[in-house]
Amino acid sequence: MDVVRGASAPAIPDAPAAVGRRTRHPLAFFVVRRVATGVLTLIVVSMLIFVATDILPGNAAVVVLGRNASPARVHKLEAALGISGSVPSRYMRWLDGVVQGDFGHSAVAEAEGRANSAVSSTLGDPLRNSFVLAALTTILLVPLTLVLGAAAGIFAGRKFDHAISLPSLVMSGLPEFVTGTLLIYVFFNKLALLPPVSLLSPGQSPFSTPEALILPVLTLLAVAIGAGVRQVRAGMIEVLQQDYVRFARLNGVSERRVLSGYALRNALAPSVQIIAQNLQYLVGGIIIVESVFAYPGVGTYLVNAVTARDVIEVQAAAIVLAALYISINVIADLIVVLLVPKLRTGAP
Q: Per the domain annotation, does 80 fall within a domain?
């Protein structure tokens, strides 16, 4: 019996030691784990994108050149695009290039013999244009969602709440192309104040024609803010019904301090996730909005690539949008952990 006790005794302090090593820096552990998960997710998504575009019927070189193209010309274009070889080897070459910022060469540009066929150069302007559109929408979306949602929750059931909630419900139920069409009808057909399309010359900055940004931003804002306001409102109502808020009021704490120090602070963490969901919506919704207003962003770039059946450009645009989507999710999770002390000090 003594031998058994002696053999098993060292196992007792080892478990707390292992837990201590893991929980000594819980925030750092969570950050590393969450970023690693995001990277792994992006790798899996990149595989799906590559396989999904690779299994499309028809060879990319033949599709671009046409069926009457000579075998020598088809082989030359395949070599230029790097689409020859097995699927795993082509995927690894493509992924290695993406990591280095090289998305390959446009099949259409190569077939037409353009001097600059690198996708990384043709994707630069659309990326900048979409970033400007998304940034302007985000700058307006975040404060409006928090302020209107919190105000509706504080005055729940009153006229002020109805004045915010009803329009939010209507806007969240309208698709992007319907909202965009209505805005074009009002601001162009009826009021003649804003252009119906947002055309930009190659290399032209979106800020050179700021009036062209107004309708696309309003469309994205109208659709995204509706769901966000309603969700923040529900979160605020739930927080205001918690016991600690009631106790604070019973103890004579001023209403202003109750709202700012207790309710708003505790409702902010779930609101971050809600706003992150709206920002993720922008990644997908921006494709439709850019198409409605002919705005030369990544969405229009992707639609044109699909229409031309340029697989290389489709892969590049898709992986960029996927990276943005996953990055927003990871950043939102990290912000929530920083906002909630229990998540910072507890086990990850």
A: yes
How many CB atoms lie under 10 A from the CB of residue 219? 27
Which of 291, 308, 332 has its CA nearest to residue 138?
332
| pLDDT, tens digit (0-9, with 9 covering 90-100), for 259-305 | 776 677 677 666 777 777 777 777 778 888 888 898 998 888 888 88
- Can you read off the two tokens belonging to residue 21? 């090593």
Alpha carbon distances (Å) from 148 to 156, 169, 226, 228: 12, 13, 10, 9
For residue 240, the one-letter residue type is: L
| Domain hosting residue 131, numbered range | 123-308
CB-CB contact of 235 with 145 (8 Å): no
Do 149 and 228 meet the contact criterion of CB atoms below 8 Å apart?
yes
Q: Which amino acid is at 92?
A: M
Q: 206: which DSSP letter?
A: G
The enclosing domain of 197 has a CATH number of 1.10.3720.10
The Cα 92–Cα 99 span in angstroms is 11
- List 342's β-bridge partners, or say none: none
Query: Could you give phi then psi for residue 168, rounded to 5 degrees?
Result: -65, -40
Distance CA 51, CA 86 (A): 12
